[in-house]
Automatic annotation (TrEMBL):
Modified residues (N6-(pyridoxal phosphate)lysine): 112
Protein name listed in UniProt: Threonine synthase
Pfam families membership: PALP, Thr_synth_N
Record-annotated Threonine synthase N-terminal domain positions: 2-80
Source species of the chain: Paenibacillus bovis
GO biological process, one term: threonine biosynthetic process
Length: 464
């Protein structure tokens, strides 16, 4: 297995080199040269595996034996051994047509833990093996930062800097990042929105001299290993729901902002997992819904919503889907991305739009939709949704058919977004680790939206 760039200007790389590269050196995103296809017989064999064993089966198709099997198992067992549920990502039946997969049983109570606990262990493993210092750099709309910091805090040979939009994440998300006082962690709170933070990260990775000088590594979903680690729970979810769904088709509804989580589902389907509909659930920052409905991909006006982790207008992983949509033509991908840069939008033909609509359904939940879903499911099913999962539920109700089964991904514990829960006049009890955050001092540096200031902060951090 080799890995190539969506823009075609990078020599094929192995798995470890791909992980270390993060953003491709030509500005594209790294993808497998060929997606391995799992046979129906293998799928049946996989359907009864534990989460860790399923993880190992999937990763074995991608790592090229660059990590010995025993080492990979040790990394996986360490990554998922500290989750609060023995199944890692349990599936709960809510009604005859709805299941919820809970992805929030990791250390920071969000789905990002599923990939980032493994990435933290993997980077630490690479640092020990190669004797290199690794400088992890990322941007977050809330959950990635906390999960990434938790995955590498205190680890020798690794420093991590996370940018987050000042005042635009939930209080718990902010505290989970900024109450960490380890010397290898730097939190930069940027006066701007997530898209501003993300663009500065991409600009720094595109500066190949700076990237090489400081051994920059990516923790965002621009790094393919993030995508691959998330793919595992699509298989796990499908197998659990299929046990009870009989002959009904299985859909999966995915709260989506940066297109990474939904692309992991797309990758699972390309590997042979027979998901019926992949439903993109967005909020009022609904660029992805508009793309699926109209064929126009154009960032709009940024809106702050009750689901802040999805307050994103520029979806990084969209380029990966574009590559497969364009029949793996890297030159066309470059043309499309250049058009997006110069004209501010991409517009598809009617024929191409019909292709997209075969791949995805989509629904953009309003703030009111979000709150109403939280209230409804608490009252009718005694199940408390976080606001992102509530958007996924709203999309399920709009897009899943009466004879179909749907799994909605629960991407965070509701305690992380109590600002939304209190608007529903619902009181919740915080888990002890979250409650403890409110009495801890914070450590962050508030800066203007200024790339030069970010560089100055990084150079001081890396050289101390």
């Amino acid at each position: 297995m080799k890995y190539i760039s969506t823009r075609g200007q990078v020599e094929p790389k192995g798995f470890i080199d791909t992980v270390l590269m993060g953003l491709a050196d030509d500005g594209g995103l790294m993808i497998p040269e060929q997606i391995p296809v799992i046979s129906p017989e293998e799928l049946r064999e996989w359907s009864t595996l534990s989460y860790v064993d399923l993880f190992l089966q999937i990763f074995a198709r991608y790592v090229n034996d660059e990590i010995p099997a025993a080492d990979l198992r040790e990394l996986a067992e360490r990554s998922y051994g500290n989750f609060r549920h023995p199944e890692v990502t349990p599936v709960k039946k809510i009604s005859d047509s709805l299941y919820i997969m809970e992805l929030f049983h990791g250390p920071t109570f969000a789905f990002k833990d599923v990939a980032l606990q493994f990435m933290g262990e993997l980077y630490s493993y690479m640092s020990r093996k190669n004797g290199d210092i690794i400088h992890i750099l990322g941007a977050t709309s809330g959950d990635t930062g906390a999960a990434a910091i938790q995955g590498v805090r205190g680890k020798e040979g690794i420093k991590i800097c996370i940018l987050h939009p000042h005042g635009k994440v939930s209080k718990v998300q902010e505290l989970q990042m900024t109450t960490v006082d380890d010397s290898n962690v730097l939190n930069l709170s940027v006066k701007g929105n997530f898209d501003d933070c993300q663009k500065m990260i991409k600009d720094l990775f595109a500066d190949l001299t700076f990237k090489k000088k400081y051994h920059l590594r990516a923790i965002n979903s621009i790094n393919f290993v993030r995508i691959l680690a998330q793919t595992v729970y699509y298989f796990y979810a499908y197998f659990r729901a299929q046990d009870e769904s009989g002959e009904r088709k299985v859909n999966i509804s995915v709260p989506s902002g940066n297109f990474g989580n939904i692309f992991s589902g797309f990758l699972a389907r390309q590997m042979g997992l027979p998901i019926n509909k992949l439903i993109i659930a967005t909020n009022e920052n609904n660029i992805l819904e508009r793309f699926v409905r109209t064929g126009e991909y154009q960032p709009g006006e940024f809106r702050s919503t009750h689901s802040p982790s999805m307050d994103i207008q520029v979806a990084s992983n969209f380029e990966r889907y574009l590559y497969y949509f364009l029949k793996e033509d890297a030159a066309k991908v470059s043309d499309y991305m250049n058009k997006l840069q110069t004209e501010g939008k991409i517009v598809l033909s009617q024929e191409d739009l019909e292709h997209v609509q075969r791949d995805f359904a989509a629904y953009g939940a309003s703030n009111q939709d979000c709150l109403q879903s939280i209230i409804k499911y608490k009252n009718e099913y005694d199940y408390l949704l976080d606001p992102h999962t509530a958007c996924g539920i709203a999309a399920y109700e709009q897009c899943s058919g009466p004879e179909e089964v749907c799994i909605t991904l629960a991407t965070a514990h509701p305690a992380k977004f109590d600002e939304s829960i209190v608007l529903c006049e619902i009181e919740q009890e915080f888990p002890a680790p979250i409650q403890a955050l409110f009495s801890m001092p914070q450590h962050q540096t508030i800066i203007d939206h200024d790339l030069n200031e970010v560089v100055r902060q990084l150079e001081a951090f890396y050289t101390r």
